[in-house]
């Protein structure tokens, strides 16, 4: 059986112009789309060059303190997740489109400076370091990991509904689409390292079909095909009332597919962030 997978965000080959996503015309009213209540956890906040550094009040600083760097999740939700999981947080909201997030880290020094500034403010060395992104924010993760020293520095990677690439022929189908492989190579490397126990890599997807660039269903199929193993169908409730449909798991690599092809389904997964971080434990 040919299993289909899917998330949402935006990654395009560097030489191609970024294309806008076709908004999904689908709306459904059956599932409840639960949301975490907006809040401002107690703690210390410091402005960085881009984004905000947050130390939860209950976090006890140690020589190695866990850090979450999260892209495109809004200003408050990553802080809520960090406070719940006792992690320092850098939250970055840089605009729309994964091309915007990737370009922000074209200069590898920017990530070095970001991490150094946070460590100086906290007076500790961070570890383990978790990179997380939702939708377009995964573009920043892809670009950061392309630098060897940054790849070595990061321990855990969380991609929520956001691994994409372009179509090799500029359009999908008509049946199995041919994908641009360049933007997927770093995810393959990461998955192999996670399967071998050297990293932790958790990725999710929905059923959103952007149309103008490859869906995360298609990129998930590509990754599994290149890795040489298959996912399996499941049917169970996930966090925030999501419905999980599929899973592929090997070593410390985990790829999960969820029902839904509408905007609320996409946001469901963002609000599952605290639970996803718990799974890293």
Number of domains: 1
How large a portion of the residues is in β-strands, by DSSP E? 15-25%
Mean pLDDT: 90
Low-confidence stretches: 1-19
Number of strands: 10
Order of helices and strands: EEEHEHHEHHEHEHEEEHH
How large is the count of helical segments?
9
CATH architecture: 3-Layer(aba) Sandwich
Shape: globular
Biggest β-sheet, characterized? 10 strands, mixed
Spell out the key features of this protein:
281 residues, disordered N terminus, alpha/beta, 10 strands, Rossmann fold, 23% strand
SSE map:
Blueprint: E1 43-47, E2 52-56, E3 64-71, H1 77-85, E4 88-92, H2 98-104, H3 109-122, E5 125-134, H4 138-145, H5 148-153, E6 156-160, H6 185-195, E7 200-205, H7 216-227, E8 232-237, E9 243-250, E10 253-258, H8 263-270, H9 273-279
Could you explain how this protein is built, in words?
The chain has 281 residues and is α/β, with parallel strands linked by helices. It has a single domain, classed as Alpha/Beta hydrolase fold, catalytic domain (Rossmann fold), CATH 3.40.50. Helices cover 29% and strands 23% of the residues. The chain contains 9 helices and 10 strands. The protein has helices at residues 77-85, 98-104, 109-122, 138-145, 148-153, 185-195, 216-227, 263-270, 273-279, and strands at 43-47, 52-56, 64-71, 88-92, 125-134, 156-160, 200-205, 232-237, 243-250, 253-258. The protein has a 10-stranded mixed sheet, sandwiched between helices. β9 and β10 (253-258) form a beta hairpin. The longest helix has 14 residues, at 109-122. The two termini are 33 Å apart.
